[in-house]
Amino acid sequence: MKMRVAVLLAVFAVFCAADAQTCALDGLMSSLTKSVASAVLEKVTLSCIDASARGSLVDCPAGYKPTGCSCGNACGSWDIRNDQTCHCQCANQDWTAARCCKIALK
């Protein structure tokens, strides 16, 4: 794939050198970037699950990362610890929940 892109750019550069006023290298680069991004996005998916536990801490399962937390007792203060755990900061929490997501290949 990289070799094809390099050859395509080289061929395009030769044609651009012959007629620089009509050369649209910016347009080509934009199209190539969009094409590569689309190809990557077609191969991945976002998978999310909920996790909950009693108390003030809940861990996401292996491979998942917390994207948001929710706390019982109307507590709105929380943080994410070690890129894996939702922590509710209010005292005497009865439950904590996490939205856990991962990016996976289709």
TrEMBL record:
Compartments in which it is found: Secreted
Official protein name in the record: Resistin-like
Gene Ontology CC, one term: extracellular space
Keyword Disulfide bond carried by entry: yes
Keyword terms: Disulfide bond, Hormone, Secreted, Signal
Annotated signal peptide: 1-20
Top-level taxon in the UniProt lineage: Eukaryota
